[in-house]
Amino acid sequence: MKNGIRFFCFVTVFALAAATGNPARAGEVGAPEIDAKSAVLIDAASGETLYARNPDERLPIASVTKIMTLLLIMEALDTERISIDDTVVVSEYACSMGGSQVYLEPGEQMSVSDMIKAIAVASANDASVAMAEHITGSEAAFVNAMNKRAKALGMANTNFVNCNGLDAENQYCSAFDVAVMSRELLRHKGILRYLSIWMDSLRDGKFGLANTNKLIRFYPGAVGIKTGSTDSAKYCLSAAASREDMTLIAVVLAAPTTAERFGGASRLLDYGFANYTVIRGAEQGGGYGTIAVSKGREAEVEAVAGEDFKTLLPKEKKGSTEVQAVLPGEVTAPVKANEKIGDLLIFSDGEQIGKVDLV
Question: What is the tens place of the pLDDT at every residue in 332-346?
């Protein structure tokens, strides 16, 4: 596209419908049958919703709560508030949690890495509280951080009371909100080495672990994420799987049996992989023309895509992908690196499906 598209262009931008169209709804022809109060299927890359059943209903989610706990742990690692090799000293309070646990003892010391493993693989309530205390000093302060993060992510139907998902009054989440925090967690690539463990051990091999998420072993491409079950929440699951260039997240809440939570999530993932395909429209840094520079040391500057563009389309709608660069005839110096100078419009079969900045 060298020397291409040197023109002024006035563009009226209309609100775009989601590229995937309306998501499938429970009971529609072709939609998977899910025996659960609530369920959603989303594309992890774009956040597009592909299937929805009561997605905003507020429900207890049991240990699926630990997705937010793990997210805050990963963010604390990213900001170097903690280190993966830190030693966590376990409090008596953390040891008192009961339920799913790795039977930590008061005063026991364990690395952050092993604590993450205990939470992600064995759904350890005691390890969750120990990490909360390690990061913020108390579980109460950590729960406050969980709710602030949920609000920042737009999780409008969520309230956390504890960090491990044990039954508590006024603790709830929705299937859509679970998908939102699951998607955010998967942005941290380091968590995948924990979520995808099938069997492992702690304490120098003396304490065995088996993943509560059976899809890790039995569903092709499964990479996580988290199970949960209590008497009030019934059987819950947020499941993620990747195939080729696509990662999907299926959430099932309040299924009547553990078999149905895994079966329902598997059917949702099968539906997504069978019916959708990835469309790539731009690669960050790719060149899409040059613009003349007025009053500058250089005669022209190249316009490049400011970010990648990737989305899903139903397979029956997939057509030829085309792009159109919308650039002015010239720019006036000074021009800074990464300054927006135009738009790249992405089309599939003549229909606009997206736009990224040219910089």
Answer: 989 888 999 999 999
Give the number of other CB atoms < 10 A from CB of residue 137: 10
- Whether the CB-CB separation of 133 and 21 falls below 8 Å is answered with no
- From 63, 182, 266, 348, active-site residue: 63
- Predicted TM-score of the model (pTM): 0.86
Give the CA count within 13 Å in the CB-facing half-sphere of 302.
9
Q: Where are the beta strands (DSSP E) in 211-305?
A: 222-230, 234-243, 246-255, 276-282, 287-294, 300-304
**Composition of the chain by helix, strand, coil, percent to 5:** 30, 30, 40
Specify whether 63 is catalytic.
Answer: yes
From 207, 237, 239, 203, select the one nearest 221 (Cα to Cα): 239
- Given 37, 38, 66, 128, the catalytic residue: 66
Check the CA dihedral 31-34-37-42 and report its sign: negative
Closest listed residue to residue 132, CA positions, set 72, 202, 78: 72
Q: What is the pLDDT of residues 298-351, one digit of tens each?
A: 888 999 999 988 888 888 877 778 899 999 988 998 988 899 999 999 988 888
Question: Does residue 229 have an active-site annotation?
Answer: no
Q: Which residues pair with 312 in a beta bridge?
A: 278
- Active-site entry in 123, 182, 229, 238: 123
